[in-house]
Every structure is written in structure tokens, then in C-alpha cells.
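Side project, low priority. Logging it here so it doesn't get lost.
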Amino acid sequence: MPREDQFIPHLIVSDGMAALKFYKEVFGAEEGHNMMAPDGKRLMHGELMLDGHKFFVSDEFRPDEGGSCKTPQTLGGTSVRITLMTDDPDAIVELAVARGATVIMPVQDMFWGARYGQFLDPFGHNWGINQQLQEQTPEETEKAAADFFEKQ
């Protein structure tokens, strides 16, 4: 029997149903089981599958409702970046921007042998989008990083 994911990211958002739609449209995620809160307005548990891996989405809930996590907007930012490996980072970032995301770092060729960029989704979560173009030894990466930062 295949082992399920050991780590499942759980994103807290300000509009769970809109977030499910965004992640399905931008990443091609497939929707799993969803459960609304008793008020019928907030997403208590949303499940998405992306390339065979789960991630959960829910609205923010007060502590007296059992909530302990906050949205990036409530916190004034996020301390987490989620990196997605893909075959077409440019297309994903373009689609994300068309759906309300903001580019933090344009997709570009990077010293670790990848095309990489970052965006903030409309819910305040930071995404790194990476396409590994070539495998490098640690020594090759260190030399390329030194060259890269020397030019900065």
C-alpha cells in the first residue's frame, strides 16, 4: 500500500472557496473533500491534490472556534515560502498574475541551474516556482553563486 504524504501544508486564507478556485486554476490542483463550517460561509477543511500530493486550505477561525493559525493578512506577512517544481514556471506565474497574484521576483535563470521566480498569491502566501534545467555539483553551484553575487 503506498504511503501517504508525511507532510501536508495547510494554508490559512481569508476566502477559502476563492483560494480553492485559484489553486485549481493556477496549479491544476484537483479538489478533494471539502467541509464548510457550521455557519455555511467559511471553509473549515478544503483538500487539494497537486501532482499526487495533498495540501489543505481553510479559512481563519478565532481561538474560541478552535482556530490557532492566522492568515498572512492578519499577521502582516508570512514566514513561509512554498516552492513548486514545474516544467513551465513562466506560464504558471503568468496565470497566477492574471488571477490576482503579485510578482515578487520575476522568473529568471538562476545560478543553481534553474528558472525560478516568486509571487504572492491573493491570499498572502509566498510561492517559489522552480524549473530545474540542469543538475550541478555543489562546487559548480558555489562557483555560480559567487559569480552571481559578485555581479550584484
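Brief comment: The mean pLDDT is 94.
Revisit when time allows.
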